[in-house]
Structure formats: C-alpha cells, structure tokens
Amino acid sequence: MAEQQAIVAGGCFWCTEAVMKDVIGVSGVESGYIGGHQASPTYKEVCTGNTGHAEGVRVTFDDEQITLEQLYDVFMGTHDPSQLNRQGNDVGTQYRSAIFPLEGQEDEARAAIDRWNDEHPGQEAVTTIEGGEWYPAEDYHQEYWEGEGQRNPYCLAVIPPKLMKLRKSFQKYLKEDA
User: Fold this and answer.
1) Tens of pLDDT along 14-43?
2) DSSP of 99-127
3) Which residues form a coiled coil (predicted)?
4) Could you tell me the residue range of the domain that residue 142 belongs to?
C-alpha cells in the first residue's frame, strides 16, 4: 500500500467528507480548516469568514487503488468549482473551492483544474491552489454524515445529490459497499 494524503476544499466539509468516504482506496477523511491566518481556529470563528480559512478535508488514500489525478478529478466533478466563494447557499470565503497540494502535488493540482476547464468551456473553475497549516475540526464534525448529518435538514438536502453525482459520473471509483 502506498498511502498518500490530499487536502481539498469544496464548500461545506460535511459534504466533501461524505463524497470522499465512498471513493475506492480512501481509508480516512478528516474535516478541518486550512488556508487562514489564525492559529487553531474554531468552527464558530471560521464561520464568520474572518479567519481566512476554508472548510476542507484531508483525505488519506492508497495510490495503488486510486491515483492523486483521479482523486482530484472526483473532487472537481462533485462540487461546482466555477462558483466563487460559495457552494449553493453556503456563501463566504470559508466555502471556496481550493486545492492545498502537499509536497510534490502542485503540478497535479494545476492539471486537474486544467482538465475541468477543458471539459467545461464557458464555466471556468475559480478553484485556487493554496498553502496553509491544517487544523482538524472539532470532533463533532468528523464523520458527520454517518451520524448527526442523517437528521440535519441541510445535509439531507445537499449531500444526497452530491453522492448521486459521484455514483453517476465516477462509478468506477466507488467502493463496493457505497
């Protein structure tokens, strides 16, 4: 197993986490905050938009089952990377579309954005490539969809369409039990 990590932000981290957990080769998804200027931010602080952080996920995956290129393509294809600082009704810089490449991943991040743009003429991605320190979100945000999210009206409205998009557009990357 060649374990790697990737960090992406595409709106609400609950949504991105739910999608990534169903992808083959993914062994872990951690929700958190990245790309801001404040050390150890809280959810409440990030939600104000004043810390500069994005809600993101750190994905641990086996690159013998899914490559970084494929994982980035799933990420780009399961949110709307053409929306600036928002995803649907979630508005603010904390919901921006961004890739936070780890060492040696920047070229692949740029290539993923280019592929999306080539496949969607007229809908250019506003996805940024950024750096930053990773801060895990509070425990109650982890694996949210599997628990509290199933009773949260927001999640019930937003996550199932993203999961259906994953199943329709990226079926070959789905875990068998997803």
Assistant:
1) 999 999 999 999 999 999 999 999 999 999
2) E---TT-HHHHHHHHHHHHHHSTT-----
3) none
4) 3-173
